[in-house]
């Protein structure tokens, strides 16, 4: 009985009273909504300056793209957002996106996340969530 009490006390101390900050959520690691908005801005600047892929964005409604990307990344990192855009299959079907295009955009995203100081582990968690979209985005 004494052991049980001691154990409960110690556990309470270690968990609560020791003042350890809880591990941030993925959404927090991305800086919540303002951090995601800043990240998407960094991403779009890079994409529009990237000669490998920028031609495909010349005629695009960039305000819409910006807003849909913010929603989508917010959802993927577990934030309290709703994605209101088209599906990845619908929005990329007619674009003839290649494997190389996809890799270029992922590189630009990683550069943008680095520039925002997002921890590597958090970066990888987002990339893992975007990876399955590859099959809907890259043309067969
Ligand atoms: C993980 C990779 C990608 C994600 C998560 C993604 C996400 C999105 C989203 C959310 C939209 C907006 C859809 C809407 O307006 O309803 C979009 C549109 C678009 N994406 Fe992607 N995309 C990816 C890869 C690519 C790649 C590799 C390219 C080409 C290099 C590309 C080119 C475009 C273009 C041109 C549009 C605008 C289409 C339009 O407005 O008609 N995307 N993408």
TrEMBL record:
Q: Which cofactor does it need?
A: heme
| UniProt-recorded Gene Ontology molecular function terms | heme binding; metal ion binding; oxygen binding; oxygen carrier activity
Q: Which residues bind heme?
A: 92
Cofactor, free-text remark: Binds 1 heme group per subunit.
> Where do the TM regions start and end?
none
Q: Which first-to-last residue range defines the signal peptide?
A: 1-20
Q: Which CDD domains match?
A: TrHb1_N
Query: Could you tell me the keywords of this UniProt record?
Result: Heme, Iron, Metal-binding, Oxygen transport, Signal, Transport
For this protein, the record's SUPFAM superfamilies field holds: Globin-like
Q: Which Pfam families match?
A: Bac_globin
Assigned protein family: Belongs to the truncated hemoglobin family. Group I subfamily.
- What is the name of the protein in this document? Group 1 truncated hemoglobin
Give the source species: Arenimonas terrae
